[in-house]
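Entry 14: structure prediction run for Methyltransferase-like protein 5. Input pasted below.
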Amino acid sequence: MDEPEAKELETRRRKRNSKMKLKQLEGLLGDLQQFSNPNVELEQYPTGPHIASRMLFTAENSYGDITDKVVADFGCGCGTLSTAASLLDAACVIGYDIDLQSLETATLNAEELEVEIDLVQCDITKLELKGHQIVDTVVMNPPFGTRKKGADMEFLSAAMKVASQAVYSLHKTSTREHIKRAALRDFNAKSAEVICELRYDLPKLYKFHKRKEVDIAVDLWRFEPRQN
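Run finished. Output tokens:
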């Protein structure tokens, strides 16, 4: 893409996103492609447009943590949270995931909505960014830890090491006390706040699922890292 084309794309994007409404954001996210062959060991479940839009809209409109910020999406999957951050005018969005097929879908989604997202294939638990790139905000819908015990804590630990401003993350409401204790005691959080409780519609994706969908209570957390 040459410079005039890039400027024209940026102008169109800014005009579209300048007054992005919650329902508009949710509608755009609802058109994204999701996992075609989800990996149960990675606990791959789509982040629905209802939750994703509210998560990012709240991060920006209540705290100013998205627009003009460097945003990282840990375990980005097909790029729903990354796309939302870009639609809300993040300065730079980087999506990290270990699964190449998911990243390919995320690339298609970004192209479809004409948003810019840098996508990186890596293991989040081995990510080292300090001193290389300043990340303001981390957003993520981590594994709940039902297949690999402690996977949710590994993601949270990694996010708290990378984010300079805030971490937004979804966790089962049933783990609330454990999450808060670990964040404050073990992960150097200055604060750990449940912003709201949401209902996560878990669709029937795997053979062992008995019901068509399951409604799970999840907390949307905002963690503020302690400045070293």
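Notes: The CA atoms of residues 47 and 80 lie 7 Å apart. Will compare against the previous run tomorrow.
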